[in-house]
Specification:
- The complex is a heterodimer of chains A (257) and B (256).
- With 257 residues, chain A is of the alpha/beta class.
- Chain A is built from 9 helices and 10 strands.
- Chain A has a 10-stranded mixed β-sheet, with helices on both faces.
- Chain A is globular, with a radius of gyration of 18 Å.
- By secondary structure, chain B is mainly α.
- Chain B has a single domain, classed as MetI-like (MetI-like fold, Orthogonal Bundle), CATH 1.10.3720.10.
- In chain B, 84% of the residues lie in helices and 0% in strands.
- Chain B has 11 helices and no strands.
- The two termini of chain B are 28 Å apart.
- Classes of the chains: A alpha/beta (257), B mainly alpha (256).
- Chains A and B meet through strand 6 and helix 3 of A and helix 7, helix 8 and helix 11 of B.
Chain lengths: 257, 256
């Protein structure tokens, strides 16, 4: 369970203040998959950094499983947008996935198991000893997802993870995220600026306004649990939902202008 | 591969050939023919001479260099990680760095005597700056996304230093170590020229003072060869340790 209550973040530089997040309240139930969408520059990344404990909010609070976040909470894994910079180029794929487990003091045999399982789950078996920069962008993001999966998180945060990969790879990775979510039963918060992606992936979609950000609207995605790129995206209900989200985002933009 | 070696060897061979031909008929006492210098080289740098004069020099060089590396990287890490410390000490560091180390030889002699300790201190004092300043820069330049990733996955404490910050700053630290190596050789010779009873610098000055000119030249050639060999070794070690960096850069060039 992830609870965000009255979250506010103001950046100060000198005597200038920029209000990035005004008043955000929403919850993600345990085991749910919620997508956050908003117009570009709406403070999605700021929000995610507050939730992951990397950034101190100015007001309000974030609770993970009932505990207030005041630093990176254990049991939470983050997949960053910039996979190229988030994977350590001086380590092999295996070491990248294994390092957080070492830090968690997982015993060696179990570590090897977790790494193998995670790489298998993202379809990267056989690349263990390669360096991340020897892989394509899509594969690098798979490594980052494997690192998160091997960490055995209860909560998984994803910050526009597919913004920098090509459209076909992106579709594959979207299906991968849905499959992993269903299999691992983790709570997922997925941030994106892509409306189609949000509707396709999420069980709920939270729409954000332009900066200073508040929650514009929330929507339950009542599409069947089994989704696939071809049929789900052609489903009339999908089109309706996507239109609704699109309208809300347009409204949010207009309100800002 | 063979072609590359041939290219690399061509110019040195040409220069030595030129020296050989131009100096062949030399009557000058101070610039004897190269043939004479090479003969002196063979006679002077016997195994026992290598042991009694080159080995002590090398030991001073290595201990000074390694000590400077440890101090430079250690302090550099501390200063690079800690912003307040950096603002406090950075101006002072720049000042110290601006002092040419040979100037300190007589001063250091006053309290460290004329033994090996003095020479090692001189080498450390000269070598530590490029290592230190490059480490500070390298640590400061560690990517923010890398640090946030480490933090959110619980990579903190010693592992943050050894598994994240040091490797990330590695290329820059290596650049500092490379600069320091050539400084170490210079300071080794200079400190031995001031006051010593053995060592390469001492021997070369002895030859010069006793007008053993071909022997003096042979010492200078040996010094050149030594520096060359050391930088070659350094290159090899660097290439091994930073293989990931070469690969990453090549990958980025292909993509960019």
């Amino acid at each position: 369970m992830l609870e965000v209550t009255g979250l506010k973040k103001v950046y100060r530089s000198g005597n200038r203040e920029v209000e990035a997040l005004r008043d955000l309240t929403f919850t993600v139930d345990t085991g749910d998959l919620v997508c956050l969408v908003g117009p570009s520059g709406c403070g999605k990344t700021t929000l995610l950094r507050c939730i992951s404990g990397l950034l101190e909010p100015t007001g309000g609070d974030v609770r993970v499983d009932g505990k207030a976040v005041s630093g990176p909470p254990p049991g939470m894994a983050v997949v960053f947008q910039e996979y190229g910079r988030s994977l350590f180029p001086w380590m092999s794929v295996r070491d990248n996935v294994e390092l957080p487990l070492k830090q968690k003091k997982v015993a060696r045999p179990r570590r090897a198991e977790l790494v193998a399982e995670a790489l298998d789950a993202v379809g990267l078996t056989g690349t263990e000893s390669a360096y991340p920069w020897q892989l394509s962008g899509g594969m690098q993001q798979r490594v980052a997802i494997a690192r998160a999966v091997a960490y055995e998180p209860r909560t998984l945060l994803m910050d526009e993870p597919f913004a920098a990969v090509d459209a076909q790879t992106r579709a594959d990775l979207e299906d991968l995220v849905r499959a992993l979510w269903q299999r691992l039963k983790v709570t997922v918060l997925f941030v994106t600026h892509d409306i189609d992606e949000a509707v396709y992936l999420g069980r709920r979609v939270v729409m954000l306004s332009s900066s200073p950000t508040v929650v514009q609207d929330e929507l339950v995605i009542d599409l069947p649990a089994e989704r696939d790129q071809l049929h789900t995206r052609a489903d009339p209900r999908f089109v309706e939902l996507r239109t609704h989200v699109y309208e809300q985002i347009q409204l949010a933009k207009k309100a800002a202008a | 591969m063979i072609r590359r070696i041939a290219y690399a060897l061509a110019l040195p061979l040409l220069l030595f050939g030129g020296w050989w031909v131009l100096s062949a008929g030399s009557e000058s006492f101070y610039a004897p023919p190269l043939s004479e210098i090479l003969t002196a080289f063979g006679n002077t740098w016997t195994l026992s001479a290598l042991r009694s004069d080159v080995l002590p020099s090398l030991l001073r060089l290595l201990s000074g260099y390694l000590l400077a590396a440890v101090i430079g990287i250690g302090l550099g890490l501390a200063i690079g990680v800690n912003r307040r410390l950096r603002f406090t000490v950075e101006p002072v560091l720049e000042l110290f760095r601006a002092v040419p180390p040979p100037v300190l030889v007589p001063v250091i002699m006053l309290f460290a005597g004329i033994g090996d300790g003095m020479k090692v201190i001189v080498i450390v004092f000269g070598c530590v700056w490029p290592v230190l300043l490059n480490t500070v820069e390298g640590v400061r330049a560690v990517d923010g996304v890398v640090l946030e990733t480490a933090r959110s996955y619980g990579v903190t404490g010693p592992a943050r230093i050894t598994r994240v910050i040091l490797p990330s700053a590695g290329p820059q630290i290596a650049a500092g170590l490379r600069q320091a190596l050539s400084i170490a050789i210079i300071l080794m010779v200079i400190s031995e020229m001031f006051a010593a009873s053995n060592g390469l610098g001492f021997t070369i000055v002895q030859f010069q003072r006793s007008f053993a000119i071909p022997e003096m030249w042979s010492g200078i050639i040996l010094l050149g060869l030594l520096g060359f060999a050391l930088s070659l070794l350094f290159r090899l070690a660097e290439r091994r340790a930073l293989r990931w960096y070469e690969g990453l850069r090549a990958a980025q060039r292909r993509a960019g």
